[in-house]
User: Fold 30S ribosomal protein S1 from Salipiger mangrovisoli.
Amino acid sequence: MANATMEEFEALLSESFEMDTPEEGSVVKGKVIAIEAGQAIIDVGYKMEGRVELKEFANPGEAPEISVGDEVEVYLRAAENARGEAVISREMARREEAWDRLEKAYADDARVEGAIFGRVKGGFTVDLGGAVAFLPGSQVDVRPVRDAGPLMGLKQPFQILKMDRRRGNIVVSRRAILEESRAEQRAEVIANLTEGQTVDGVVKNITEYGAFVDLGGVDGLLHVTDMAWRRVNHPSEILSIGETVKVQVIKINKDTHRISLGMKQLQEDPWDLVAVKYPLSSVHSGRVTNITDYGAFVELEPGVEGLVHVSEMSWTKKNVHPGKIVSTSQEVDVMVLEIDPAKRRVSLGLKQTMRNPWEVFSETHPEGTEVEGEVKNITEFGLFIGLPGEIDGMVHLSDLSWDQRGEEAIQEYRKGDVVKAVVTEVDTDKERISLSIKALGGDKFADAVGGVKRGSIVTVEVTAIEDGGIEVEYEGMKSFIRRSDLSRDRADQRPERFSVGDKLDVRVTNIDSKTRRLGLSIKAREIAEEKEAVEQYGSSDSGASLGDILGAALNRGE
Assistant:
């Protein structure tokens, strides 16, 4: 019985010790009983004392605040070391305490106070009252900070972006706090601004597309197109950083807090008088301000520009870049072609200030005029000849030669050859000039067949014998009589019965001026002669044979 009671007592005693003895790895309360050799000696109870460096009681950049009798919380790392003392840490206790506090602030999206105390790769270290956080370089300020020295050691608010207690990671931002306060400031300034209001501002920054103007705590964008009525290539032409300017509030976006500003709106709009000053078809002098692929912009006066489209730049240079015709800053004469006040557009013409070279050519070179020029280009359908006024005339394949096919005749010409031709047509609307080389010596075909009509009997000379017929010549014009037209009698339709040099009487069956060919036939002549003989000497119905009639006609002819 006594043994059982003893065992119960020991169990209770053991349980009591376990309950009261602090667990290693936990935060315990203690009292400072002495300060010596830069250390505070702390009694954590349970007959345990430990030492903590005084610097663990100090915030970065501050002196330690600790004195004998103070109650402090410390972290019990081990109940006893080699010297029989408890191993305790104020810093680790502060860290545990800080993590609890910071986790609550993170959950509540609340700001936390801290001080930047060190520089690391990519940013800075921040003491958040016991826990160390990382401040990325991009989160220090709303604009890049070149020197963070003045910020070191200062107690200031931060926003926790993310934290991971298990890994001991905390990332904070100072920029988020600044942006929030700036947003409040912007909202206050914007609330006092109205669209159309004229305000003074200071040019803070200049970019390619405009300038940012400080209106007293809030920036507005003055776009390059709203600086002046004239074309501005770069804002630095008009503004400089630090300059005070008078601007008009054009638009305020309440959601994004963006403010659009304008300077030209405070000046008179030159477009109000454009229609009066620049009537249609009037000619004015202007300066080329910009050249693009599709034309050139010409400034008529500051703020008023017109476009000379590439199609209106030159009568003759059709597929040339505008930069080959005019150059920037060049003074040019232009004609007003169209005005669109709603779209603020003026269409101008450069070529209209010069005479149409096709009209000039038609006046100086009427049809039938002989011209001389260089072969500029050879195509599958003819030659292009350079003519006065930087224009071209075309000799079609069919106008190269009377005797040769166009495809054969064009082989005799080379680019750069100087040739003569006759003007056959000038179409000023289509900007087209037709020339003829074969017409230089007159129309041989027309001259040769001038007195010949269809049905006429003409004498030709055989020039060649072929399987399909014979080639003959009449007044220098070649023709071909097919085998079927060589005789009425099928047995005599043999080309070989003729010889080169034979003179033959043939009937003209066709005159084709287009192909410049005579249709000739011996057979047709024979049929015509028979018909005539029948009409004169009797009818075939009377019983007389054709031989009798032709014989009688021949005898009478004798």
Observations:
- Residues 448 and 476 are 8 Å apart (CA to CA).
- The radius of gyration is 55 Å.
